[in-house]
Amino acid sequence: MERPARLCGLWALLLCANAELSETQPPVTNLSVYIENLCTVIWTWNPPEGASPNCSLRYFSHFGDKQDKQIAPETHRSTEVPLNERICLQVGSQCSTNESEKPSTLVEKCISPPEGDPESAVTELRCVWHNLSYMTCSWLPGRNTSPDTNYTLYYWHRSLGKILQCENIDRKGQHIDCSFDLAKGKDSSFEQHSVQIMVKDNAGKIRPSFIIVPLTSHVKPDPPHIKNLFFKDSALYVQWENPQNFSSRCLSYEVEVNNSQTETHGTFYVEENKCENSEFGSKVTSCFMVVPGVIADTYYAVRIRVKTNKLCYEDDKLWSNWSQPMSIGKKPNSTFYITMLLIIPVIVAGAIIVLLLYLKRLKIIIFPPIPDPGKIFKEMFGDQNDDTLHWKKYDIYEKQSKEETDSVVLIENLKKVSQ
């Protein structure tokens, strides 16, 4: 009879323990929040008072929007988040890591956004990590901001050890930017940590703005350097060097080929190397066959740009600037084309003038002008009147001459008779 009694006692203890574990635990105490660096928010709390000694406490927490749920034994939680909006964390205690278990009453602690008019905060704040060497952040002034506002940018990264101020602020109209050195370190975890950015004014009249910049994105490489172009086996090859600080496998390439003679344009995307180092030397990082079936000595101009790929980075949208173009082949004689451009309009204009003159002459031959009958009769009758008037004048003159002659003869005869 003793053994069954002992079994019943053990079973009762197990039931009591399970009952204690299933009971809702008391809430956590002394929940507080503070900020480290620029955008690191840390919550801390104490274990609940009166918790069961047989309970292995775990703490259930999530943010106000019920995102990023977490169950852990630590009495603290931290996160990197831009402090532009109100952020709240809710924490409860429970005795297991099972999410189906009902936690204690949740305790909430919030951190408010910085003071100031939201319309005074800068807008379009964004940052780009150039060639893994330096970072440039740019922004536009807020709507309710004085034009003479003096801005200050602060940045922090784990490798820096402290918050630093950007000194190289540049204004170009409404656009403002600032650049600071941020070289990739030898530590393999360097890119796993983000850069925290804050922009405010010196007088404290505008609301500060925050941004978190992951170093696995927002990366813009420098343009590559074209080393050589050559024809081989009816194909055009391009030899180039990648920008520093990048492995070839982490880059994607775009090669642009222009032929000015045929006015053709081709774009080729390269995801991997196409040439062996043994052919061009160990310093060559990449090579690509551009155009198969080309004609030797044909004039080509080539340029290249690169971007990061998703094999090494999360972002693959920021292309580098184009490289300096390099050409190969015989360049067309520009003097000949300029001369032709000047001569052809002159020839065309002369041909048009000759054609117009010829058409005018041809019109006269085909459609001769019809004479005006009125003009003809006028000329005929006008000539006859002139002749009649002439003869009338001659008859009068002859008559006057004859009378004068008769008068002279008569006077001579009278003189003779008188003698």
TrEMBL record:
Xref: CDD domains: FN3
InterPro entries: FN3_dom (IPR003961), FN3_sf (IPR036116), Ig-like_fold (IPR013783), Il13Ra_Ig (IPR040566), Short_hematopoietin_rcpt_2_CS (IPR003532), TypeI_recpt_CBD (IPR015321)
GO molecular function, one term: cytokine receptor activity
Signal sequence segment: 1-24
Membrane topology value: Single-pass type I membrane protein
TM stretches of this protein: 336-359
Subunit organization: Interleukin-13 receptor is a complex of IL4R, IL13RA1, and possibly other components. Interacts with TRAF3IP1. Interacts with IL4.
Annotated protein name in UniProt: Interleukin-13 receptor subunit alpha-1
Source organism of this protein record: Dipodomys ordii
